[in-house]
Every structure is written in C-alpha cells, then in structure tokens.
Design goal:
Helices cover 32% and strands 24% of the residues. The chain has 409 residues and is α+β, with helices and mostly antiparallel strands. The protein has a six-stranded mixed beta sheet. Strands 3-9-8-7-6 form a five-stranded mixed beta sheet, sandwiched between helices. A four-stranded mixed beta sheet has the order 1-2-4-5, with helices on both faces. Helix 5 links the parallel strand 8 and strand 9.
Length: 409
C-alpha cells in the first residue's frame, strides 16, 4: 500500500486553459487497461523538457529531444504504457517516429510538433500498430477535465494515479498549475523511471522556460530515489499555454516569477513525493536532510549514500535501529577530508549520535519508536559549513523483490 497517499479527486484537478487530455485502451501489453494517453496543446503553447542522462536512452527520448530542438511548436504528446521502446535499436526509432507521424496526420500537424513517450518493459518491440489504431479513440476522449484519467492512463507498476493542482494569484489574476506523474520503481535522480507533465496557463517569456524546467526538476524529481536505478525513459515536461491575462513574466526573480515558480515547484514536489510514497513495496516515506556541509553537492552525496544503501533501507523496513549503518554510509559518501568527530545524527527529534559516537542519552527503544512511524526524518549534521540538501526515499521490503521478480509475468 502507498505511504499516506490517496488517489486524486478528479474535481480537485483544475483544468488548464489550452490543454486537453484523452485516454484509450489500446491493448499494448494487456487488454482492458488504459494504456494510451494523448495531450493536445493549443497553438502558441511553449514546451520544455528534461530527460534521462542514461546513455542507453529510449527511442522516444531521442525523438523528443529532436522535435523540441526543431522549434516548430509542440502541439501534441502521445504516451503509451506497457512497453518502454528502449533497447530496440533502429526499429525502435522508426516506431517512435511512426507514432508521431500517425498523430500528426490525424491532427493535420507536422510530425516534429508531436512528442512521443513510452514506459514499461525494456528491449521488447513496440506494438506501434496498436498505438496507431488507438489514437482516434484517445482523441475522441480529449477533454480539459481528464487529468485524473490521464494520471491513471500513464501508470505501470504504480498502485495509484498521481496528480496535483494549485492556483496562485499573479498581478490579481488567478493562474492554474496542474500536473501528473508516474513512477514506482527503477527510481533514481536524473531522473527516475518516471514521466512527469506539468502545465500552466501562466504568461511567461518562452526563453525562460527551459531554465525553469531544469530548476523545477532539480528541486523535485532529481531529489528522489527508491532503488538507485536510473531508467532509460525518464522525462519531465513543462507546458505553458500563456492563456492567463497576466502581464508577461520576463524574470523568474521578479515577484510574479517567484510566485509562479513557487506554485509550480509545489506541484512538482508533490508529484515527486507521490512517486516515493508509491515506491514498489514501500511502507515508509523517509526524508534525509544533511546540514552543515561545505557545499550543497557534498550534502547531496551524503544524503544519497544513505538513501541508496540496501542495509539502511532494510533496517527501516524492519524498524530496526541499527543506526551504525547510517554512519557507515556517511563515511563512504566520498568526502575525502570528512572528520567523523564532527558528525551528529538525529532520527526525528531523537539525537542518536554526537561528535561521531553514540549519544550518551540515546536509548534503543527511542530509535525503534521513531523507526516504526510511516514518515521519518533522518538528519545528519556534518559540522563543516552552512550548506544543506534534502533527498526523499523509502524503505526496501520483501514486496519490492516480489514485484520486480514477477514484473514480466
């Protein structure tokens, strides 16, 4: 079961002017399953994206990069589940392009105005004929209120759809931000086995969008990990329709730019947290905060060393305060001049270690009490400076092994 995560209420997901979504059952891998989703964007919408850094990136990721670089104005997106179209060579690229061509033909667009996305099993041929056959049904279903259905349509091993909305006043005008994501396993920054789509009707200078997208990803999706595996298909897209009647935002550091960025980060971070809460087999949501570093980079190294450790994660699953495992992870994080005698460690409010050793007042029953919670804060103080960074992760359970052992069955 997900950790303190409920399915979205469709009525809580606010339509974004200029965006419509449609869903169909195309039978890509399994019958009677929503597995094909389309996003339709009004002319003039600005789109930016960040993608996996896995060198073995999937065919749709390669095509997305090409089409965004072409600059012809993205008008549609096609998302299929059940098959990642990764590790499929030249045929996979041809299939991703064929998907774009089929969508473009139906909408009277150029293929370069369509972005393809795939998620699912790697190294299996894409059933592109089923996608093409399902597109008319997905288009007929398109509606600006179908965010919840789209969140369900992009799921793979997720147990719940993930979608969030917010509204913010900018210059006295309401601006909407709504997003969906999917992901539950093979999750690690840069980015995760995840797809994320966030749209807003804000009126923002298009040249700001790529840097804004990267900043949003870095503070949300690039701060989560479930199992340390970086996927071939990770994609995060931001769509700005410019429909809100606000003055044009020309600076992200202006009051209007900061307000918009805060709203978009709130949605992006909720989507990222939902992925961790729905991590395969997860029973606990764990925040790892590292303070007192010389740089944020070294704080992040320490946080990920803890978050990726199978020994740490299994201890959390068992509610076993074997907390020397955390100190060991701090030690091998890669800070060559780290002084262990400067390290303090907390579980929630319980101080476990001081100056690199067990705190004299620490009692194992206090550690166990905290570790039995479904949400836990691990805080490490490095004692080296004033920088900080935070990562979100989950525990590692028996169910994680079972889910991944049975994934292709």
């Amino acid at each position: 079961m997900p950790v303190n995560l409920l399915p979205p209420e469709p009525a809580d997901l606010l339509p974004v002017a200029g965006v419509r979504l449609g869903i169909a059952q195309a039978g890509i891998r399994k019958v009677n399953r929503k597995d094909l989703t389309v996003l339709l964007l009004d002319e003039g919408t600005s789109v930016a994206g960040v993608f996996t850094r896995n060198r073995f990136c999937a065919a749709p990721v390669q095509v997305c990069r090409e089409h965004l670089a072409a600059g012809d104005g993205i008008r549609a997106m096609v998302i299929n589940t059940g098959n990642a179209n990764a590790g499929t060579g030249a045929q996979g690229l041809a299939d991703a392009r064929a998907t774009c061509e089929a969508m473009a033909l139906l909408l009277k667009l150029q293929p370069s105005q369509v972005l393809p996305f795939s998620t699912g099993v790697i190294m299996e041929p894409l059933q592109v004929d089923r996608i093409v056959a399902g597109l008319p049904k997905a288009l007929a279903d398109a509606n600006d209120t179908h965010w919840a259905q789209a969140a369900e349509g992009i799921m793979t091993t997720d147990t719940l759809p993930k979608a969030f909305s917010t509204r913010v006043d900018i210059a006295g005008v309401p601006v909407t931000v709504t997003g969906i994501s999917k992901g539950a396993g093979m999750i690690r920054p840069n980015m995760a086995t995840m797809l994320g789509f966030v749209a807003t009707d804000a009126h923002i200078a298009p040249e700001l969008l790529q840097s804004l997208t990267a900043e949003l990803a870095d503070a949300s999706f690039n701060r989560i990990t479930i199992d340390g595996d970086t996927s071939t298909n990770d994609s995060f897209l931001v769509m700005v329709t410019h429909k809100a009647a606000t003055p044009l935002i020309t600076s992200l550091s202006s009051p209007e730019g900061l307000a918009l960025k805060a709203a978009m980060l709130s949605v992006s971070r909720q989507l990222a947290h939902a992925i961790v809460r729905d991590g395969e087999g997860a029973t606990k949501f764990i925040t790892i905060q590292v303070d007192g570093g010389k740089t944020t980079e070294e704080c992040r190294k320490v946080a990920y060393a803890i978050a990726h450790s199978p020994l740490v994660k299994t201890a959390f699953f068992a509610s076993d305060p074997n907390l020397g495992r955390i100190l060991a992870a701090v030690g091998y994080a890669g800070i060559e001049d780290l002084d262990p005698t400067g390290i303090d460690l907390f579980l929630d409010e319980v101080q476990v270690a001081i100056q690199g050793g067990r705190h004299p007042a620490y009692k194992e029953e206090d550690g166990q009490r905290v570790m039995k919670k479904s949400e836990i804060l691990v805080r490490v103080l490095l004692g080296r400076g004033s920088c900080t960074d935070t990562v979100w992760t989950c525990d590692l359970s028996h169910d994680y092994v079972s889910i991944n052992a049975d994934y292709r069955s």
